[in-house]
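Internal tracking record. Fields below are filled automatically when a chain is submitted to the structure queue. Please do not edit lines marked as system-generated. If the sequence contains nonstandard residues, flag them in the REMARKS field before resubmitting.
Queue: standard
Priority: normal
Entity type: single polypeptide chain
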Amino acid sequence: MSADKKWNSGADAADDDDDDGRDETEFQAMKDATLFAIEISNSMIAPPTDDDDDTEAGSKKKKNKKPKYSSAEAALRCAEAVLKNRIISTPNDMMGILLFGTEQTKYGDSGSNISYPNCYLLMDLDIPDAPSIKELKYLLDNPDELSEILKPSKKPASMANVLFAANHLFTTKAANFNSRRLFIITDNDNPETDKASRSSAQTRARDLYDLNVRIEPFFISTPTHQFDKSLFYTDILYDTGEDTTENLPTEEPTTDAESRYEQMLSAITAKQAPRRALFTLKMELGKGLTIGIKGYLLHKRLDPSRSHYIHEQGEKLQIVKGTTTRMAEETATEVSPDQIRKAYKFGGETVTFSDEDFKQMRNFGEPVLRILGFKPQSELQLWHNTRSSTFIYPSEEDYTGSTRTFAALRNKLLESKLMGISWFIPRRSAAPVMAAIIPSVEPQGMFTIPLPYVDDIRQNPEIPHIVSPNHLIDRMQDVIRQLHMPKGYIPSKYPNPALQKHYKVLEAIALEEELPEEFEDKTEPKYKSIEKYAGQQIQEWGEALSQAMTEFRLSKPAQVEVHGTKRGREPAGGAAAAKKVKKDVEGGGGGDADKEIRAAYDKNTLNKLTVAVLKDWLNSKGMSVAGKKADLVERIEDHFENK
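SYSTEM-GENERATED OUTPUT FOLLOWS
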């Protein structure tokens, strides 16, 4: 069942403002509509050459040779992979596949009067479902039927018609989508040679950009022909401030269709839909100096998609819309939302609050990022990071000149190695936090890091640490040196294995396939490589550790027992020693208890003592023991300060 608050009825309306339960995944990305436009020509459907593979691979690689595809088939398989991913990860996104340059012409339903010559709409722009993916998979598994569709026309398709067809699909199918993208996959760098056709194509491309449709090309080169985008595509690719026309790795010449498929899939999946701002608010640098900023959540743990109840009895599966009805426990009558109050218990009494009371309690002012002062960046400790940071960037929507002011502040903080300390309310009804503002070199901008309050800091128990001998440290350096990763950790190479298993199972069930028995886990250590490069060093270190541990047990048996058992050893004297301390406290004055409390006061470690010890000492002095631990500590501190 969905955990979304929309599942609940109006009785939970007040809960929607609860900051702790707010789901931030809605801010991660916009609804996206993607159309694959794949050119079909003799060169695009030509089988790949494998001369280079046969000469370089050797007999070992030939045994494990993977199937290779033509450029057009690689593009279709790439689209299939993206479809399978999107149907689970972002089920509300739209996708479509348009082939151009085909002998057959197909656009929309058979009864449609709209037609674009030599354009074949293989998959209409719509939310993908299992039947459409099955149909595409069937074509890819049946080369004869696929080749009938991929027959190139004698005359190439007009790019103006292709762009116009894409325009029609986006305006009729995805009119209200914030993100609309057109992927053009081609190896023809000059499809329009006459001036009139080029001008018409430029006009159609401009119309797409006016509709906020981004054209993202994937150019394919060959060993005999380097794709030159300046011949035609430079005129239809407009600069939108993104790296749309950058030289992608996919533009490099390649005859290996297998790697071409991998390049294609990597490039397309890397071009994710633009992220939507988590918040838009004002940033106050001082009295009368305000700029606009936007906040983005750059990193967030991705969890499996939510499940829903579905209705199976109709013509097709439908998501069930749930409602909540609240009943009175004693009378079993329905309770309307206006009859419900929230309450807290104070001292055994129930204090009720209305929705308006709760809103007032949560109202800490307008959303703002207000700078209070500056501190050296070195004072930000690792343990200060208790919550996710937010990336902030200037916005000119409400305050002109925000970018220059923001850039000046960022550059000065970088130059002086300073950080800002701010009062941060990201949105209405959110609890205010103190936040550090850290300048970022790349990406260019700044990060806000929520700082902990005193209530958020917990005292860890003091545990004696065993210091490793130097010869063990030296041997471990050899192990680390052998297992060093030159490029470090690259997140894009390691998909979450739990998510991948979840997606594979859902995919198999949706497409009515057999459940996979094994799942690829790229986080699994490469034990053979570890054994090859560091096996000897690891074995030597293990032997040295065993010898050092034996010597340590013989020299310090007390510490070994404390670390080897859950409770550790009782202090010398056993329970009698503990009782003696208790007796001194109850006896009223002096003794070990006074010395212990005084020593803790001098070391400023009173808060590390237990509440029982603090209360016993206060009782012995005839002082109040009411309140929380902080109140007890404060009374003891006042006692010694006034003494």
